[in-house]
Design a protein that fits this description.
Layout: E1 2-6, H1 14-23, E2 30-36, H2 39-46, E3 50-54, H3 65-89, E4 93-96, H4 99-107, H5 109-112, E5 116-120, H6 127-140, E6 143-146, H7 149-155, E7 161-164, H8 176-189, E8 197-202, H9 211-223, E9 228-233, H10 240-255, E10 262-266, H11 271-277, E11 280-283, H12 292-299, E12 304-307, E13 323-325, H13 330-342, H14 344-361, H15 364-396
Parallel strand pairs: 1-2, 1-4, 2-3, 4-5, 5-6, 6-7, 8-9, 8-11, 9-10, 11-12, 12-13
Helix pairs in contact: 3-4, 4-6, 8-11, 9-13
């Protein structure tokens, strides 16, 4: 099966990491990554994947009529260029890795006649724009892949088949010796005491990720006389408001007098190693669609404390494979942190359970196999449609 994997941006975030990891584990599909030149294609080349560079398209959907019109024109141009590329490459399925990628890929279906599967990593925008996207998708897409049940429900009903396929993690936990080395090396690199209690929060710097809650929890712990450190890993991407939010986080750390206990690391590629070097992972997001970093940490046996909204509850069984708390409830978050730091038995049991949980339900092999099954179904249905069309033409003659 020849698959054109289309990403409308060259920036790398959770959806793009999932793209690269999953594509590298296919057994039947021959994948070509199509995207603007940049970080994503560089990583794809390093992974030995085929790539096709397409012109950049960076316009964002907007409620402003003029910006929306300009964005639509940009989508039409990008859709035409993608159509040319997939037809030239002989693709049998187009895997669109975002809502905008799906819209552009489906826009010229009448021309390329290649089935398009939309990969739903997030809920659509609210209001009129979101309603229009859902209406268009219901008519345009041949299938959908949703990363969690809340994402599936948030998108609403559609005419295409919706497949629930959770993100998958690579199950290659480091040895205890390797973990010890990462713990020593990364703590030294990040100027953190070797024996200090370290929490890490990993993800895009954005208001909805609520890194501020982790800072406030850190402050509360320090106020109670418990020495702790917080690594904030990630960078602001995609929106101007995210840049402002980073400055707000730094200002908050100064106001609470905890700056010396915090390390803003920026974007890093060594997520697995960072999880091993820290004592626990925090996820404070509001309505997290899935939380790929959760399964990456759990695969290494790192305990996770996360908000209970969105798709997180599909991953973590509270009290067994991690701990959940109500979004924005700082006292509850602090209590969970203290319970893991003070209860060795609980921490070790959760560490064992979370590795088993990921291995049983969230392996990359499972995700890749389920996705290839979707491809095979689309290829088969496309062939059947083409056969019926040829038969109809024959009868007409």
């Amino acid at each position: 099966m020849r698959i054109a994997y289309y990403n409308h941006t060259s920036s790398v975030s959770g959806a793009e990491i999932n793209l690269l990891v999953t594509a590298a584990h296919y057994k039947r599909a021959e994948v070509t990554i199509m995207a603007p030149e940049g970080d994503l294609l560089e990583r794809a080349r390093e992974a030995g994947l085929l790539v096709v560079a397409l012109p950049s398209y960076n316009a964002r959907l907007s409620r402003n009529p003029l910006r929306l019109a300009a964005g639509i024109l940009g989508m039409i141009r990008a859709g035409k260029q993608l159509s040319d590329a997939v037809m030239a490459g002989g693709a049998e399925v187009i895997h669109a890795n975002s809502l905008r990628a799906g819209m552009m890929a489906s826009l010229f279906y009448w021309r390329h006649r290649i089935p398009v599967v939309w990969h739903l990593h997030d809920n659509p925008p609210k209001g009129l724009v979101g309603k229009l996207i859902r209406m268009y998708a219901a008519k345009a897409a041949q299938a959908f892949i949703a990363i969690s049940e809340p994402v599936m429900k948030g998108f609403g009903s559609s005419s295409g088949t919706v497949h629930l396929i959770h993100n998958g993690a690579v199950l290659s936990p480091f040895s205890e010796l390797e973990k010890k080395r990462y713990r020593i090396d990364l703590r030294r690199q990040l100027d953190t005491p070797a024996g200090g209690r370290v929490m890490v929060i990993i993800g895009q710097i954005a208001p909805w990720k609520r890194q501020e809650d982790a800072i406030r929890a850190l402050h509360s712990l320090i106020q109670q006389g418990e020495e702790n450190y917080l690594w904030i890993v990630g960078e602001p991407k995609f929106r101007e408001e995210n840049l402002h939010y980073l400055k707000e986080l730094q200002r908050l750390a100064d106001e609470l007098n905890v700056t010396r206990h915090i390390r803003f690391t920026g974007f890093r590629n060594d997520v697995d190693q960072l999880c091993c070097a820290a004592d626990l992972l925090l996820l404070c997001s509001e309505n997290e669609p899935f939380g790929r970093v959760i399964i990456e940490a759990m695969a290494q046996g790192t305990p996770v404390i996360a908000t209970s909204g969105g798709g997180v509850g599909e991953i973590i069984e509270h009290g067994k494979s991690g701990l959940l708390y109500e979004t924005g409830n700082i006292p509850q978050l602090v209590d969970h942190i203290r319970s893991l730091q003070s209860n060795d038995r609980l921490r070790k049991q959760i560490s064992v359970n979370c590795v088993e949980r990921v291995g049983g339900y969230f392996s990359i092999e499972q995700a890749a196999a389920k996705t290839e099954h979707v491809y095979a179904q689309l290829v088969r249905e496309s062939a059947e449609r083409n056969n019926r069309l040829e038969q109809t033409k024959g009868v007409a003659k």
